[in-house]
Amino acid sequence: MAPVPVPAVQEGQDARLLAAQALGSTAAANDRLTRSRRWYEQLRHCYAAPADPACEKEARP
Length: 61
Description:
Blueprint: H1 15-48
C-alpha cells in the first residue's frame, strides 16, 4: 500500500496535457491507498489490543 507515482513525461509529449490527465487519477489512487493503509494499521492495532475503546466500533477505511 504505497502511493502511486506520477508518470514521467517523455520527449515530444505535452507536459500540461499529461499532467491534466494524470492528476485526478493519481490523486484518487493515492487517497484510496492512504485510507487503506490507515484502516489496516487500525485493524492491526485492534487485534493487538482488543480492550482499547476505539476498537469497539467498526473500523472503516
